[in-house]
Protein 1
Amino acid sequence: MSALRMAFNELRRITSGKLPKLAVLALALVPLLYASLYLYANKDPYANLNHVPAALVVKDKGAKDLNAGKDVADELLTGKKFNWKVVDDADEGVRKGDYIFALTLPEDFSEALTSAEQNKPRQGVLTLTTNDANNYLGSTIANQVVSEVRRAVTAKVSTEAADKLLLGFSTIRQETTKAVDGATQLADGSATLRDKLGELDGGVQQLSTGAVTAANGAAQLRDGTHELRSQTAVLPEGAKKIADGARQVATGNETAATQAEEYAKKAQALVGALDQVNGDIAARLRAAGFTEDQVQDVMATLGQVRKPVDDANGKVQGAAGDLRKLATGADQVADGAEQLSSKMPGLVAGVVKLDDGATKLADGNAQLRDGLQKAATGTPQLKDGAAKVADGSAQLRDGLSGGVNKIPNQDDPTRAAIAQAIGDPVAVRGLSQTKAATYGAGLAPFFLGLATWIGAFVLFLLLRPLSRRALAAGQSALRVAVGGWLPGALLGIVQVLVMFTVVRFVVDIEPSNPIGTFGFLALMSLTFVAILHALNAAFGAVGKFLGLILLILQLVSAGGTFPWQTIPVPLYPLHYGLPMGYAVDGLRHLMYGGDLGSVGKDALILLAWLLGALALTSVAAYKQRVWTASKLKPELVL
C-alpha cells in the first residue's frame, strides 16, 4: 500500500458521515479563528486612542507674556488623541477608573517657565496621575504623551527666550550706534575745548607779565611815599614830585586796569563757553542713552579738568577788580598830590594817607602778581588735561565704532530661524527600511505562526498518526510515516489558505510579498504538522502534552513581540533551537519587504525540522510494527 493510498484512506475515514465532515471543517477554521480575530481586534489600537478617557486639569494662572497652560490644553484638545475631559480635580476619577490617566498643569506653570528672566530659575512641573489598575499600557502611553508635551513646551519656551536674546542684541547695537554718535560729538567738543584753552594760556601769560610790571610800579610808589613822609621838610618840591609821580602811576595803573579788564572779559567768555560745552556734552550723553549717573560722572570729571581754569578766572576777575581799584586810587592819589601842592595845610595828613594807600596798593599788586603767576602755571596743565580728554574721547569713539559691527543685528526671518535652531536644535528624521502598516500588521508574523502551530495541533485530535492496517501489513516505516503525515499536511494547507485569504482581504493586512508569504506559511504548516505528527506517533497521548509544552516554550522564546534578545540569557538556546523563531523571522521579511536572504536560511531550518520529524515518525512506525499489550490497551487515551 502506497503512502498516498494510506493518506487517502485516512481522509476518507474522517469524512465518512455528516458529523465527521463538520469536524474536519472546524479543524480547517481553527487557525483562522485564532489569527484573524486577534489581528482584527488589535489591527490599529492607536487609531482608537480618541476613545480612551483622560482628564485634563488646567490650574495655570499664566505669566506676563506667556500662558503655557492654556496653550498646552488647546493643543491637546485640538489634537483629539485622547477623549480629554477638562475637570477641576481628577484624582478620584482616576482612582475609580473614570479616566485612564490625568494630566495636571499647576498654577505656577507659566511663571516657572519664565522664572529665568527674573534670575530665579526653576522648572515647570507637569503632574501625570496614572493607575495601573485601570490599564498598564495606558500608563505607558500616557508617559509618552507627557514626554511629547514636555518636549514641545521646552522647544517653544527656549525658542522664545533665544528670540528675546537676539532681539536684545539688536537693541544693544542700536543704542551703541547712538553712543558712537555721542562719543563723536564728545570728541569734537573736547578738541574745541583743547584749542580754546590754548588761547587762554597765551592770554594768562600776558596778563601775568602785566601784573608783574604793575606790582613793581606799586612797590616803587610805596617806596616813594615812604620817602615822601621822611622828607616833608622839602614839602613844596617834594609835593610837586609826588604829584608828578602819582599821575604817572595813575596813568600806568589805568593802562594795567584796562588791559586786565580786557583779559578778564576773555577769561569770563572762556568760562561761559566751557559752561555751554558742559551743557552740550551732558545733553548729548543723555540723548545717546547714558544713564544720569554716567552723565554726572563725566561732568564731574570735566569739572575737575576745568577747575584750574575756573580758579584762574576768579583770580583774573579779582585782579582786574583790584587793578581797577588801584587805578582809581592812583588817580585819586594823583589828584590829592596836585591838591597837596596847592593846599599845603592838609599836606601832612594827605602824605600819611598816601603812604598807607601806596602800601596797600603794593601789597594788592603783589597778591595779584602771585595769583596770576599761579594761573599761568596751571593753564598749561589744564591745556594738557584737555588734550588728554580729547584723545580719550577719540579713542572712545573709535572703540565704539569698531565694536558696533561685532554686535549681531539679524532681520526678523533670520532671527526667528536662529531662535528656532537654538530652542529646538535636534530634529529626528525617520528612515524606515521596512515598516509594518499597523500595530496588527506588526504582530501578524507572530500570531500567524502560533495559529499555524495550533491548527496543526488540533488536526491530531481527529487524525490517527499511523495507519494500523499498514503497520499490521508490515509496510515500510518511511511509507507509513509519510502516509500518516500527508492527511495532516493537506488539511494544514487548507487551514493556511483559509487563514491567509481572510487576513489579507477581510482584516486587510497586506504583505509586501503575498506569494512568498503564502508559500512560507505552507512550509510552516507542513513542518509544524510533521513535528506534532512525530510527537503523537512516537509518544501517543503524551505527545499531545509535549506539543503544548513546545508551544509554551516557543511563545516565550520566539521574539514575537519584543526583540528576542530581551529574553533572559538562559532562554537563548530555546530561541536558537526551536522552529517558531525562524518562522516569525521569515514572515517578517516577507510581509514587510526585508532582505530575502535570511528567508532562505529560515526556510532551510524549517525544512530540516520537517525532515527530522519525518525521520522520528519513521522510527516510531518501525517500532510500532511489534504489537504489545500496552499498545492494544493503552493506559491513557486523548
Protein 2
Amino acid sequence: MGSYKQGDSTFYNHIENFANLGDFMSLESVLDQMKREQRVLTEKIFIVIFKAYGKAHLPDKALDLFNRMFEEFHCRQSIRSFNSVLNVLIQEHCFDRALLFYSNGIEKGIFSPNFLTFNLIIKAMCKMGLVDKAISTFREMSYKDCTPDVFTYSTLMDGLCKEGRIDEAISLLDEMQIEGCFPNPVTFNVLINGLCQKGDLARASKLVDNMFLKGCVPNEVTYNILIHGLCLKGKLEKAVSLLERMVSSKCVPNDVTYGTIINGLVKQGKTVDAVRVLVFMEERGHRPNEFVYSALFSGLFKEGDVEGAMKLWEEMIEKGFKPNVVVYSALVDGLCRAGKPDDAKEILSQMVTKGCTPNAYTYSSLMRGFFKTGNFHKAILVWKDIESNGCTPNEVCYSVLLQGLCDYGKLKEGLMVWKHMLGRGCKPDVVAYSSLIHGFCKAGLVHDGLRLLNEMLCQDADSQPDVITYNILFEGLCKLNNISRAIDLLNSMLDRGCDPDLITCNIFLRIFQEKLSPQQDGRDFLDGLVLQLCKRQRVAAASLIVEVILQKYISPKASTWGRIVKELCKQKKVQAAIEICRSKLFN
C-alpha cells in the first residue's frame, strides 16, 4: 500500500535467493528495479550472481554482467569480481576467452593480479597445452608479490606430466619445498600418475615412500593410480596384492579400483580370476557397473567360455542389475563371435522388449555374426531393421555391410552401399575402403582397386591403408601375373611406414614358386626385405621376416644374420631381453 519501503538489504536477500534458485528472469527484474531506484549494488552481490551463472553454465551472461557493472550499476570492478568471472570461463572450458579476458584486464594494467588470478590462468594455460607459457606466468608471480601455493605447483606439475615432461615436474617438487610450500596428497598423486602413465613404476614406488616421509598418507586416488599403472604394465599379481594392502590400510577401494583390476585381468586372458575379483567386490558392498560386466562378457567369450558368460548373465539378472545398451551390446557381440548369431538375435529382441534401444554397434555385431556364419539374407534383414527401428547407421555399420557384400561377390550392391554411405556424409574408414578394394580385386578389377588405394592415401589417418589393404592388392596383382607392379607396390608400402606380415611373405613366396620360371625359393627376396627394413630402423618387422625365413626352412645369407643380430643386440635391447627372461624364470 506504499506504507512500507524496501531497504537495500531486502533487495540483496531477493538477489541471493533468486541466484540460489537459478531464477535469472526474476533476478534480472530485481536488478532493473534497483537500477531505476538508484540503489547501491555492492561487488559482493555481483560475485553471488557470477557464481550462479557459472553453476547454470552461462559464461556469456557472467561476462556481459561484468562489463555492465560500472556503466549501469555504478559498481567498480576489483580483482575479486574479475577472478570470479575468470573462474566461470575456465570452469566452462572457455580457455581461449579466459586468456583474452586475462589479457584485457591484467596485461593492460586495469587490475593487479593476486595469487588466485595466477592459479586460475596457469590452470587454463595448462589445459590448453601452453605449459611453457604457464611456466613464464608462474615465474612472474614473485615480481607481483604473489607467493605460489600448493595448488599452483600441483597444477603446473599436472600440465608438465601431461606433456611427458616428468623430470621437470619432479624438480618442481624439490623447488616448492625449498620455498617453504609443502606438498599434499594431490601433489604426489599428480606425479605418481605421470610416472605410472610413462611406465616408470620404480620411481613411482619411491615417490610413495617419499610421500610417507613427508607425512602424507596415500588415499584412494593414490592406490587407484598405482593399480592402474601396474595393470598397464601387465603386473596383475602386484596389482591384486596392492588391493589387499589397500584394504588392510583401511583405505576403501571404490568402483574404479575394482574395475581397473578386472579390466587388466581380462586383457591378460585371466577372466576367471577377474570373476573372482567381481565376487570379492560384491562381498564388500560394491555394485559392479556396466563397464565391469561388459569387460567380463567380452573376456569370457574371447576365451571361448560361452557357458560361463551366459551363467554370469543369468546371475547378473537375478541380482536385479538392469543391463543397459553397453552390456547388451557386449553380450550380442560375444555370441556373434562365438558363432551364435541366432542366440544374439534373441538377446537383441529381449533388449527392445525391455525398452533398451540398440545402437549402431549392436546392429553391426549382429550383421557381422550372420555374415560370418553364412547367413547372408539374415544379415541383410538386420541392415533393414536398423533404420526402421529408429537407429541411424554409422561408419561401422556401413563397413560391416560392405565387407559382407564384397566377401559374397556382390560388388554391384557394394557400390550402391558405397554411394549411399557417401551421400549420407559418412566418411569411409580403412575397413570400408579395404572391403571395396577386395570386391574389385575379386571381380578382376584390380586397377579400380589401385585407384581407390590412391584415394585412401589422400585421406586422414583413420582411412590410411594398412597391411591388410596392401595384401588384398598383392593377391589381385599376382592373379593378373603383374609381379613387377606388386613389387613396386610393396616398396611404396615400405616407404609409407607400413610393415609386411606373414601373409605378405606367403603371397610373394607363392608367386616365386608358381608364377616364375624357373621357380625360386624366395630367399633373395626375403633377404632383401630384411635389409630394407633394417635400413629403415624397423627391427621388429625385420625380425619377423627372419622368423618366416626359418619357418620355411630357408637359410638366410650370412650378411642378413649379421645385420639383424647386430640390430637386436644393441645394449638397451639386450638388457630388455634379459629382464624379460629373468621375469619369466622367477615367475
